[in-house]
Amino acid sequence: MDTDTPSGTAENLRADMVARLRAHGAIRSDQVARAFAKVPRERFAPEETSLTSVYSVFDVVITKRGADGKATSSVSAPWLQAEMLEAARLRPGDRVLEIGSGGYNAALIAEIVGPEGHVVTMDIDPFVTERAGRFLAETGYPHVQVVLGDAEHIEHGPYDAVIVTVGAWDCPWAHLLAPGGRMVVPLRFCAITRSITFVRDGDRLVGLDPTVCGFVPMQGAGAHHEQVAALAGGAVTLTLDGGPPLDTAALDRALTGDPSELWTGIVARPGVPFDTLHLWLAVHDDAFGVIWPNPAHEGDLVKPVLRWFCPALVTQDSFAYLTYREANSSDIEFGVHGHGPDGAELAQRLAAHQRTWHHDWRDHPGPRFSLHPADAAVPTPAVGRVFRKRHTQLVLDWR
């Protein structure tokens, strides 16, 4: 951590972070604000991290990377931590389980539930748990229980809240919830993630307030491996959950060929969110995946409408993705680029899906989420889909 920082700067930055989180709407309660104002976030970050980065509202602090350079542990961005803590509706005296440790978030939870509460934070990586336990003790939270283990096999409980801070493809923790408990999970499906708050309704869990987010993926028995094709030496990445094996060499050739191009006539102001389009595509096309260019690579092999996780349709040797062009001085028009032998057909499909969503469903609040046991008889919604997982079935219902 910076040693030349003037005395009090960390406190000032912390106060400024809280003010920004309130203005952003991520912090909505006094108890969450007090926790963020008190816990020293910098004490849980690597020493080389600048205080400015530590207290940036929208930035993640990476604490460990794997051999491939990808993050395996991090301190999540403050806006997302605040959103998830608000969604959990923690109260003094609550028993809380955090799956995916690091220490800082557990300290925030401990502040909210108070000395009469009980906090367990769990991680599969001994590097993470050792670090979390040490930093929690040093910052005044030795009473937080740090557990090394695989979250797939948790049996203790019950808990008033379960907060998952890793990307989970499945959700085998419903049995841990006490009556009236809430579970906040960044749930992964079709290569996209939504942080969803689940509450019990009979033999199912109803999902509330889906929030676009990203987390490092879960390890251990709960890990799920999507198909990832790194093209042009890593300049462009395609991700697809399921389907036939991707032919990376064929997709590489498709990328460098001339694309099929069409324009949808759909015009929008830059920055206007359209995240429910991802959910619409996930429900209606098995080829739905995502594409993004690596910002470390120069060039313009693709021009996606979103920098990260742009909607795409992906097959073994072809793909199509959403692009854009200026429509006037302030708006853009959505288009589609298709690559490979089936690129033109995929482009037509993607454009048709977007038009349907735009004309009939764009102003819809989005699908309702519910989670059911794996062995339950769950009917497919008239407009929606059932995603069958190992322990559960996730239902998206657009009605």
From TrEMBL:
Its main location: cytoplasm. It holds the Pfam family PCMT. GO terms for biological process: methylation. One of its GO terms (molecular function) is protein-L-isoaspartate (D-aspartate) O-methyltransferase activity. Its EC number is 2.1.1.77. Keywords: Cytoplasm, Methyltransferase, S-adenosyl-L-methionine, Transferase. One of its GO terms (cellular component) is cytoplasm. It is found in: Cytoplasm. InterPro entries: Methyltran_FxLD, PCMT, SAM-dependent_MTases_sf. Coiled coil: none annotated. NCBIfam families: methyltran_FxLD (TIGR04364). PANTHER family: PROTEIN-L-ISOASPARTATE O-METHYLTRANSFERASE, PROTEIN-L-ISOASPARTATE(D-ASPARTATE) O-METHYLTRANSFERASE. Belongs to the methyltransferase superfamily. L-isoaspartyl/D-aspartyl protein methyltransferase family. This is Protein-L-isoaspartate O-methyltransferase. It comes from Nonomuraea maritima.
